[in-house]
């Protein structure tokens, strides 16, 4: 492939500026071209980064930094993407796979540019003959996913970058009809990407814009609140109903996102305790002034919540990410001197999944029916949920990474991914939902408090009943994605037969034909004794991710924890030694 010259990139930047409806990004493109032509090497590099190619559209849609150029998020890219998506929906209608004309819901979060991008998406979809419903204000991603299903729409668009850094934004797509409001999955992403490429090749002025957009009324959010609250209340065990007045102090942070209002409405409708908000982070603010990375998983992200919780003596901290599709939970940990500790994604997934399994079992007994359904988690999540499923007569499904797979599991009872994504009520929304999950978690903690117990006691109970599962993640950073891919390939070509003297009972290469629903660059090692190692390159960064899981089912809870965590440390040392050896050999 011939590399694009600097002169051509400057010409491309000026052509971009001539069509860009946004004066800010138009000026950016022109200034970069001027500086590059004047011999500024930094400007040339920036120009190449922005204009040499375009953002790839995948199952997560688009996500990138704001700015001028086809490799950034801006009004031109959003409009071209919407034109391509509209063409896909029209083709889908022609094939009889959706209503004709198609319908779409467009929602947006509180990030910089989200409202403008949402209006662009709605107008372009409407200009292509799609009947569009635009949400009236910035709101959570789960509300858009709910709207697709509730309104019987053909599709949905959500303008969000979820928990990405502050200067990012994105374009996320859902499908209705048989997909039930789930995120898109292959090969749909490639089909949409092909139509976006066609739209981007045409003059920007040819992208039609329409009017007649319907603005959703308050009944949409009202229905979401009512159905979510009803699901939470219905899931409360009868023996716990007399303890609904148990005192519980909950600190809540929206992380400058859009979860606060809808979340509090759900908590109130479900009869849950009023939360104490972190005032500095309670309202939407796309600049995220108190957070470098607005993600509950990041170190320091909960510092404001921890400080407030200490001041008010909180029993629980609830944290949503900026679009409220993820949930972080923290509580005072007696094992750590009473300091607040955030539950890992796997710990909370175990607790909420166990709660969902008990709900399903009660429903089956009430209706005098056999218990049925499945719990689901991604392949890099802990195997603990499988033990819960088997103990309750439910199926267990391990999916590829991404909620687009989890939400599609037939007869799903509960699903989660270790990156703080949970779906406790699939009958309401078919995507991860931090508001649903937080309401269910608060109800669970209130029930435990009424019994004089904590989440840590409940986790100990799980260890006693199902065995103790310990999980860890190792990240190996290299100086290029190509080196990461080479390292993964070396492991694939000569997979170890043991780690730390523990035999590999089964090795699975998920890229091999038939090993997974869609081939994935993931290597799985199941070890004797129930331990497991999963290895996969990051799809976006130059790093290899290794997920380690160990289990112990013998002795006291303390013994089980100690043995599992010791096994985990030894597995980590073994995998690091193996990777160091491979890198030395290939140097």
Automatic annotation (TrEMBL):
Entries under CDD domains matching the protein: PGM2
Residue ranges that the Swiss-Prot or TrEMBL entry lists as coiled coil: 554-581
Transmembrane segments: none
Pfam family for this entry, one: PGM_PMM_II
Location of the Alpha-D-phosphohexomutase alpha/beta/alpha domain: 56-197, 245-331, 346-461
Superkingdom in the source lineage: Bacteria
SUPFAM superfamilies: Phosphoglucomutase, C-terminal domain (SSF55957), Phosphoglucomutase, first 3 domains (SSF53738)
Family: Belongs to the phosphohexose mutase family.
Stated name of the protein: Phospho-sugar mutase
């Amino acid at each position: 492939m011939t590399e694009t010259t600097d002169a051509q990139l400057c010409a491309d930047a000026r052509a971009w500026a001539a069509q860009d409806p946004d004066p800010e990004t138009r000026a950016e493109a022109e200034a970069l071209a001027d500086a590059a032509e004047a011999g500024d090497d930094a400007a040339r590099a920036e120009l190449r980064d922005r204009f040499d190619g375009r953002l790839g559209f995948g199952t997560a849609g688009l996500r990138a930094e704001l700015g001028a150029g086809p490799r950034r998020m801006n009004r031109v890219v959003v409009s071209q993407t919407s034109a391509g998506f509209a063409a896909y929906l029209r083709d889908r209608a022609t094939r009889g796979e959706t209503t004709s004309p198609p319908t779409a819901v467009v929602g947006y979060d509180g990030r910089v540019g989200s409202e403008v991008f949402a209006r662009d998406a709605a107008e372009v979809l409407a200009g292509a003959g799609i009947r569009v419903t635009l949400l009236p204000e910035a709101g959570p991603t789960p509300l858009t996913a709910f709207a697709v299903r509730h309104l019987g729409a053909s599709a949905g668009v959500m303008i969000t970058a979820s928990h990405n850094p502050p200067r990012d934004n994105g374009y996320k797509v859902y499908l209705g009809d048989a997909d039930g409001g789930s995120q898109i999955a292959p090969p749909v992403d490639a089909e949409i990407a092909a139509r976006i490429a066609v739209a981007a090749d045409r003059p920007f002025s040819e992208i039609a814009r329409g009017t007649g957009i319907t603005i959703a009324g308050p009944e949409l959010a009202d229905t979401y609140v009512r159905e979510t609250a009803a699901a939470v209340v219905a899931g409360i065990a009868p023996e716990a109903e007399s303890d609904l007045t148990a005192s519980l102090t909950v600190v809540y942070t929206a992380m400058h996102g859009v979860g606060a209002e809808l979340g509090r409405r759900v908590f109130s409708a479900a009869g849950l305790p009023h939360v104490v908000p972190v005032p500095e982070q309670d309202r939407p603010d796309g600049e995220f002034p108190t957070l470098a990375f607005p993600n509950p998983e990041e170190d320091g992200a909960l510092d404001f919540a921890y400080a407030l919780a200490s001041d008010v003596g909180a029993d629980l901290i609830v944290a949503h990410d900026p679009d409220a599709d993820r949930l972080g939970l923290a509580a005072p940990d007696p094992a750590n001197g009473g300091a607040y500790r955030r539950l890992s994604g796997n710990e909370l997934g175990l607790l909420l999944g166990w709660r969902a399994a008990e709900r399903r079992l009660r429903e089956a007994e009430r209706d005098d029916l056999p218990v049925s359904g499945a719990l689901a988690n991604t392949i890099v999540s802990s195997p603990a949920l499988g033990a819960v499923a088997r103990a309750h007569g439910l199926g267990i499904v391990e999916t590829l990474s991404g909620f687009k797979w989890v939400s599609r599991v037939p007869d799903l009872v509960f699903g989660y991914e270790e990156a703080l994504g949970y779906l406790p009520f699939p009958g309401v929304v078919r995507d991860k939902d931090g508001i649903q999950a937080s309401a269910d978690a608060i109800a669970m903690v209130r029930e435990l408090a009424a019994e004089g117990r904590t989440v840590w006691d409940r986790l100990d109970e799980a260890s006693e009943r199902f065995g103790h599962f310990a999980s860890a993640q190792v990240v190996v950073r290299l100086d290029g994605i190509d080196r990461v891919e080479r390292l993964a390939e070396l492991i694939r070509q000569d997979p170890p037969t043991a780690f730390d003297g523990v035999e590999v009972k089964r090795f699975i290469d998920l890229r091999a034909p038939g090993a997974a629903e869609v081939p994935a660059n993931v290597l799985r090692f199941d070890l004797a004794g129930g331990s497991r190692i999963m290895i996969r390159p990051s799809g976006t960064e130059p790093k290899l991710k290794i997920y380690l899981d160990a289990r112990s089912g013998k002795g006291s809870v303390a013994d089980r924890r100690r043995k599992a965590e010791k096994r985990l440390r030894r597995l980590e040392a073994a995998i690091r030694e193996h990777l160091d050896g491979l890198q030395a050999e290939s140097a």
